[in-house]
Amino acid sequence: MAVGSTLFAVLIWGSVGSVLAVFGYISWLLIRLRRTK
Amino acid sequence: MVSQTAALAATVVTLATFTAAGLWYAHGRVGSVEDLLTARNSTGTAMTTATLIASTMGAWILFSPAEAGAAFGGLPAILGYAIGSAIPLLLFIPVGVRIRELMPTGHSLTEFVLVRFGPVMYVFVLVVSVFYMFIFLAAEMTAIAGSLELVAGIPAWQTATAVGLFVLVYTAYGGLVASIFTDTIQTLVILPLLAVGFGAAVLALGGTGEIHATALATDPSLLDPGFRPGLEFGLYVVFAILGANMLNQGIWQRVYAADGESTLTRSFAVAALTVVPMVLLAGLFGVVASGLGLVTPETQSVAFFLVVIEVLPESIAFVVVLLVVLLVMSSADTMLNAISSLITVDLARIIDVDNDRSLRLTGRGLTVLVAIGAIIIGAQGYSVLRLFLTADLLAAAVFVPLIWGLYSRSLTELGGLVASLAGLVVGIAYFPMLRGVVMLVPGVGPLLPEPAFLPAFLGATAVSTLVTGLAVAVGSANFEFDSLTTKIRSFDESTTEDPSAAAAGEVSD
């Protein structure tokens, strides 16, 4: 039984969102580090 | 297709920019061979996470996961690939913490193997580890040379030479310090480029609904999570990646570069969570290529790029060119530094290197030699996935006794060796890619089982684990873990306390 269209969309856009979230996390850590220095 | 001039210009500008950044950052920061090879306790969570993502996610993610999706079993194969890429990073959390406790001034897994097991096991692990990392580097060169040839028609040798030389310049000069810094910047460019580029590509293909419908109409098994060949691939790739990563000196260097246990734990956990969507997105392009009927048996390994060339607008193809260059730089510098680090640390034990400066020069010289070798192989155009799978099999048979040896006092060198060799024999017996070589051994042919990847990788790891367990149960050794702290010291310590100690390397009695 194939994965449904909605689940497929969640898989793709969820992955795109997760990658952007990690970008945000690392950027936030670096900015915080710069401010505390 | 992207214009050759534009792609070449973008490649050279990207290479030159990051080379300049690496040289600038490393200037004045590489005072000793320790800085060049270890950068001990120097990076916080942001840099450690970024460098782990950049180091492990090379240009291979645009080849192998898509090939797996297109040819090895659709969605379940990609899911296995994604999860398999994350598991080693998670395993590094307890194992990394443990090795930092046992040998706080260590540099590599091979050092541990030498003191914990002995010289025979050490040479065995060293050879497998260097072989795997060299294959990784050569595969990266192959990947970028092949992709730019496909997308922009740039001859493979030109790309391999340009990338190899630029990365070599800042890695030989700035070592691990330059590698981690450039990795951080590269990750900050790669992540949004990947997300936006892939998002735009999905929209250009008509959205997720359209892609789903096309794939389903062409071959429903592409999106079937229970598709058996895909599940099998997903399972054996986990073992393949796990073993290989455990022998990846680039990751061990970063275990030591992290500025504490909490940094190590957080960074490896976040990196593990990040590689899953990255591999998943890249792999889904294989499903798309297959769904659109673009893939033939000859073009499976470039499934991702078939979609880029045939379907997507030139602007997205250009983003892919930049992405490939960044992915390659970030992992090639890691592998170059890791191989030279491993050999430099080990060379210091074998030949008479009388001071820190000589050792640094040796390390840099080795970096040059390794880069030249990788450029030559990279221009040949071998299959990236096939290159990896061969190196992965060796690692799958070897890593279990090494990790077990971190916790067990009773495991002997003989036990570890027998376990590794037993795993290797079973793995090679089933491994399809080495069948031709194995058949050359007289009398072996009729004894060989049906070749298949799943029993090869599963068998190599399972037999190695089983024999290690038996060796631990009957082992008579009583290894003193405290001896690791005294026998393995940093190069700085060796040079300060006793200049002659540096000549013998950092392992001392």
From TrEMBL, chain A:
Q: In its keyword annotation, does this UniProt entry include Transmembrane?
A: yes
Bilayer-spanning residue ranges = 6-31
Print the keywords alphabetically: Membrane, Transmembrane, Transmembrane helix
Q: Taxonomically, what lineage is the organism?
A: Archaea, Methanobacteriati, Methanobacteriota, Stenosarchaea group, Halobacteria
Query: What is the protein name stated in its UniProt record?
Result: Uncharacterized protein
UniProtKB/TrEMBL annotation, chain B:
Keywords recorded for this protein, A-Z: Membrane, Transmembrane, Transmembrane helix, Transport
Write out the GO cellular component annotations.
Answer: plasma membrane
Tell me if tRNA-binding is a UniProt keyword of this record: no
Which Pfam family is an annotated match for this chain, by its short name? SSF
How does the record classify its membrane topology?
A: Multi-pass membrane protein
- Where are its TM segments located? 6-26, 46-66, 78-99, 120-139, 159-181, 188-207, 227-247, 268-296, 302-328, 365-382, 388-407, 414-433, 453-479
Chief location:
membrane
Is-annotated flag, keyword Transmembrane? yes
MF-aspect GO terms: spermidine transmembrane transporter activity
Gene3D superfamilies per record:
Sodium/glucose cotransporter
Compartmental location: Membrane
Q: Which PROSITE patterns match?
A: NA_SOLUT_SYMP_3
**Family assignment?**
Belongs to the sodium:solute symporter (SSF) (TC 2.A.21) family.
Record's protein name: Na+/proline symporter
